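Methods — Computational structure assignment.
A single polypeptide chain was analysed. Its primary sequence is given first, followed by the predicted tertiary structure written as structure tokens.
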Amino acid sequence: MVYVGIPKGQADQEEEVLRTIQDGDSDELTIKRFTESREKPGALWHIYAAKDTEKIREFLKKVAEEQGQENPVDHDPIHDQSWYLDRSLRKRLHQEYGVQGWAIVQFLGDVVFIPAGAPHQARTGGHHCIKVAEDFVSPEHVKHCFWLTQEFRYLSHTHTNHEDKLQVKNVIYHAVKDAVGILRANESSLSRP
């Protein structure tokens, strides 16, 4: 979070921000960072375990049906990013599916790492903010990232996530190419007894 600006002329802004943090199920230490340390919160994140993705997807489809919405085959309620799980939906997700995420308030200067494939959502808490985001593939999560790109292929061709933004196949190719290059460069020293 590289910038958090507090709008001028809004006297009740701090109360709204505190309410957002509390409604987001933040812990007491996080609330104290805002109320006592006077740090500037920029965004509220909810991050879920990647293993719970199917349960969340099923839950969102169920809620959509209850609200009379369609669930087209070539769309995905997670990748569509058309849902925000408010407090009541998060509570229902936990009660009906046993899925509970982590609430993280990102303050000015904080970095949030999201594990590969972890469903997540973010919203600003009343302040204006600017964040810098960077996608990357760690070696430990290449398999999962590759699986995600296969999942994207089933979305409609007009979907914003239809393409492989991480270019996982290129990452794998260059990682293997670099490893082979290093092994060849050190081949003579590796073959000595």
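Note: The CA atoms of residues 46 and 103 lie 5 Å apart.
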